[in-house]
Specification:
single chain, seven-stranded mixed sheet, 11 strands
Amino acid sequence: QVRLVESGGGLVQAGDSLRLSCTESGGTFNAYATGWFRQAPGKEREFVASVERRGGNPTYSDSARDRFAISRPNAGMSVYLQMNSLKPEDTAVYSCAVKPSPFDIWKYWGQGTQVTVSS
């Protein structure tokens, strides 16, 4: 059974940093890619960043590109999202998801972790 567990969220001040973790289990080890998404209250879920199986091809949204970094050290079971220079508009529930192959949708999702940035 595929399971994704996010951690690392919290309440921080503008300008602070957080590192989110997404730990995978149950058969996602060879999944094509892992991504991070976020959903703020009253808004649609939006893509933040993704990385392929061996840590290659990191991809970012425009809002994340210069401040966030996604990584998958040693092609392991955890994917990290380092978030720097956080802004109040980064406040959202952050969820990770796995795409089993290049032709799949983001098929498996975690429950999410809350990130709140105060001004």
